[in-house]
Amino acid sequence: MEFDFTWVLLGFPIAFTLGWLASRLDLRQLRIENRQAPKAYFKGLNFLLNEQQDQAIDAFIEAVQNDPDTSELHFALGNLFRRRGEYERAVRVHEHLMSRGDLTQPERDRAQHALALDFLKAGLLDRAETALRKLEGTSFEEEARLALLSIYERSRDWANATEIAARLGSSSHGSFSTRQAHYLCEQASAAAAAGDTAKALNTLREAAAMAPAATRPLIDLAKLQNQLGQPQDALQTLLKLKEVAPQGLPLAAGLLANLAQSSGQQQTAQDLLKASYAQSPSIDVIEAIVKLEKDPAAARQWYVQHLERHTSLVAASKWIAGEKLEDEHHHALVQRALDQATKPLMRYRCAACGFEATQHFWHCPGCQAWDSYPTRRIEEL
User: Fold this and answer.
1) What does pTM read for this prediction?
2) CATH number, domain with residue 273
3) In which band, very low, low, confident or very high, does the pLDDT at 30 lie, cut at 50, 70 and 90?
């Protein structure tokens, strides 16, 4: 039986026609899907630009449903949830991304970083730490280390904070020696509170060697030496401020005057304080000079000299406190009013967030910044 090639010839056009129709149907479906996804995406973007986050989230959810394989839409949706404080939903979005097997390694690292931020914003510090540790060796490594440093500072885990700061210092983020010195001072404070003064002294000396231009290690070391009954050593420690950190003298002026009196070196301390005041006038330095002055009239004259150079309500109040008024029986009332008025002026203010406090902080309790408090009071800024 011979094969009839007529059917083959007739089948080619039919097969071609069916293939063409199939391709047209696929293209049409693809165009419909592509039109639907960008439409929802751009709608969400428009809502986002108009700060209509609820509508933006609905639009992005629609876009993700139309095209569930698009990772960028998942990232956008997760970030929106995080910004709105819906951390649980943000975590679900980013965990869903992490579970996908078709993600490239950069996308997976990005999802891991986003997940760590979700945990961090939600206050789940242990889970955030675990997620951030997984970013070692990725393009998000430096950002992860900075976030870890913030976590360890907030939890007062100074040992781990020191480790991370050392790694950051060895990279392109500059020197972290001053911050590491703060960590050592915190550890020394804990050791002293626990009764281990020897460890505290060694730790403070290590901090002073690590950051020679830092003020805190020397002040903390002098305070501890004074508590241990070593006023002479404490005074010598504070005298180093003149060379390494003269800007910190106002914070140590009162302690310096007390140590000078107990060790009989008033003149040495006075010379240092007067030189500091001449370079940069400060109420705290004046108070220390007045304390060391033997003549009460000469002591009060320092307030007058300060008023000649600066309009200072604090100095005026201090001067009036030692003067005789015509109506002396009203003196207490006037002084009380002045003291009340000067209280806000004697506070310290964080230069980073504006948080005010009656005491000087090395670590701002408001914004967690280090060394953000100037060494001078609000009136002197």
Assistant:
1) 0.77
2) 1.25.40.10
3) very low
